[in-house]
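TASK: fixed-backbone design
INPUT:
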């Protein structure tokens, strides 16, 4: 086989990989070749543009470290992460919708007692978070693990801080009580731009896009016999709800962060300043009910 042209090259590559032993690897490789070749035939890049594309992907790799995953940011900002999420979480009306994990989750957060304040030495508007975890039909799930993490009032996560201010803050793990409930205090998170000082930031700029995400609190919830839920709750009224840089907003995940004047909070804490309350009831899918592949 030789003398390929722009039409015959695709078939030649597909034939070359025809004996791939693992059927799934074969399926993925063949689709990749077909789509990539069709993309190139559609775009007809100049040699210089092809080199720019290679340089962009190389820079994306070089930007990655233990704490910075530029390829995930690329996937997020191209809508691929939410597409994978949608394919794997066939939404059933009765359960809470999922959204993108993002790069700021840290494995094994400290487990704290119900009602703890996770804001450490951060300043900001106090936020009381309450919620429940139930099955789709509303049966409480006691002992569910609820991991939470969110940005500070300047829009930064603890892992983005360096030096003296570094340390675990605005992230923790709680367990639901017998009624499937949990609660904690923190400070209200702010909207923030995703890290945009690398190739993904350059791409957003070239596409005339902003890097902002609306204010949100992340939740990762696990209970035996149920699918893990990865989601956020967004603040109603945030100006970025309709232009989230990573396409993660769903109506069902938006809530008022209700404002209250100084006074006594529902758990008896005496508040000397204005504070807000976020309440959300999460429903989990029975295990493995998500459809990863089209039937
Ligand atoms: C986040 O919400 O933490 C996030 C998600 C995607 C990209 C960057 C940040
Ligand atoms: Fe976030």
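OUTPUT:
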């Amino acid at each position: 086989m030789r003398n390929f042209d722009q039409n015959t090259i695709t078939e030649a590559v597909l034939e070359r990989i025809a004996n791939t032993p693992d059927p799934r690897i074969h399926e993925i490789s063949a689709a990749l070749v077909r789509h990539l070749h069709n993309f190139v035939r559609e775009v007809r890049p100049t040699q210089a543009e092809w080199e720019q594309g290679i340089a962009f992907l190389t820079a994306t790799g070089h930007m990655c470290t233990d704490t910075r995953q530029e390829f995930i940011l690329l996937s997020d900002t191209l809508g691929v992460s939410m597409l994978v999420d949608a394919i794997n979480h066939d939404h059933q009306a009765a359960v809470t919708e999922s959204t993108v994990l993002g790069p700021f989750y840290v494995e094994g957060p400290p487990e704290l007692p119900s009602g703890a304040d996770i804001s450490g030495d951060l300043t900001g508007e106090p936020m009381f978070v309450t919620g429940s975890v139930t099955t789709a039909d509303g049966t409480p799930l006691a002992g569910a693990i609820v991991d939470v993490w969110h940005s500070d009032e300047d829009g930064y996560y603890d892992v983005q801080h360096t030096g003296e201010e570094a340390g675990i803050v605005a992230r923790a793990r709680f367990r639901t009580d017998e009624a499937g409930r949990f609660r904690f205090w923190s400070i209200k998170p702010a909207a923030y731009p995703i890290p945009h000082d690398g190739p993904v930031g350059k791409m957003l700029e070239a596409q005339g896009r902003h890097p902002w995400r609306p204010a949100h609190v992340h939740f990762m919830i696990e209970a035996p016999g149920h699918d893990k839920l990865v989601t956020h709750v967004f603040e109603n009224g945030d100006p970025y709800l309709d232009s989230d840089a990573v396409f993660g907003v769903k109506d069902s995940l938006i809530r008022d962060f209700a404002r209250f004047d100084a006074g006594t909070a529902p758990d008896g804490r005496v508040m000397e300043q204005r504070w807000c309350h976020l309440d959300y009831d999460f429903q989990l899918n029975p295990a493995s009910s998500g459809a990863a592949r089209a039937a």
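COMMENT: The helical segments are 9-16, 23-43, 47-63, 70-77, 80-88, 199-206.
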